[in-house]
Amino acid sequence: MTETLAQDLPRHGPLRVVLLAYEAMNILDLVGPLQALATANRNAEHPLYETIVASDTGGAVVSSAGLPILTMPLADLDRLKIDTLIVAGGCAGEAYAAPESLARWIEFRAPSVRRVCSVCTGAFLLAAANQLKGRRVTTHWAWRDRLKSQHPGVTVDTEQIYIQDGSVWTSAGVTAGIDLTLALIEDDFGHRVAIDVARQLVMFMKRAGGQSQFSVPLAAQAQADRFAELHAWVASHLREDLRVERLAAEAGMSPRSFARAYVEKLGRTPAKMVEAMRLEAACRALEESRLPLKSIADAAGYSDEQKLRRAFSRHLGVSPSEYRERFSSNLNGGGTD
Predict the structure, then answer these.
(1) Which of 162, 167, 173, 323 could be disulfide-bonded to 1 (CB atoms 3.0-4.6 Å)?
(2) Rounded Cα–Cα distance for residues 42 and 55 (Å)
(3) What angle do the packed helices 191-200 and 176-189 form, to 10 degrees?
(4) Whole-structure pTM over 0.70, yes or no?
(5) How many other CB atoms sit within 10 Å of the CB of residue 69?
(6) Which of 78, 83, 74, 93 is closest to 13 using CA atoms?
(7) Predicted confidence band at 327 (pLDDT cuts at 50, 70, 90)?
(8) How far apart are CA 112 and CA 104, in angstroms?
């Protein structure tokens, strides 16, 4: 497949995007990207995208939420050129069973498609269609280990909300599909078009692909794991020195055993956990308060404002002031950076 960007291609009308649906898919995995593309069209002088929602046999496909979606049969796409294919995730039970007919169709059509994309567990379907072998991909963090075990030839990285590896784009679960689509729009038509779409959707633009998928405290509560109390302690001691030795002592373990057990349980290092929690705390403060940046940096455990700015740039792709502008309900009298 060509790696040429859409803006460099001869244009003969809008880019055709096919969104693949199937029974028990997650509805937001489908309609999130669909709405982002529709908003791009609404903002443009001429349509940028032609969108088609398709399924194996067409007709009504019932999502996991119980809402039916009308679709076009794949047979009707035989003679149509497809620019981008987006595969939704979702399944009825705790095991993802890739529909064989869809996997065969994807494998047949993929060589002529410029970009092949998945949202959430749609990565399992792309893997079944032999599109992920040797690639670095992501999926919903809760499905990471299953994707690794079922497809050992795939490198699974759930530290990111979306990943591009050549012509294959994959994203984490649910809302990350919208982040992926914004990245596709930016890839096609530039940052200005993508940011206009994000503003219309009241979204944060541009949430970097490297941003973590999940909140550490929420993940700990959901899993009820052995480190839940430690996470609660960290959240209330962000201003302190939180090197692994201190965390290990708080957990009642040796530093070496703690670091190993932590990575095995949560799939990230303790240092990355602390960094994520400090960033979350800074984001909340920017959203909910008028405190100056210096005070926010200090409360979140950053030694100075510059380190806080660098953290925002590295993880979110924006400055603290840009973040506050998007999300704060207390803009008047807010601090500057």
Answers:
(1) 167
(2) 25
(3) 140
(4) no
(5) 19
(6) 83
(7) low
(8) 14
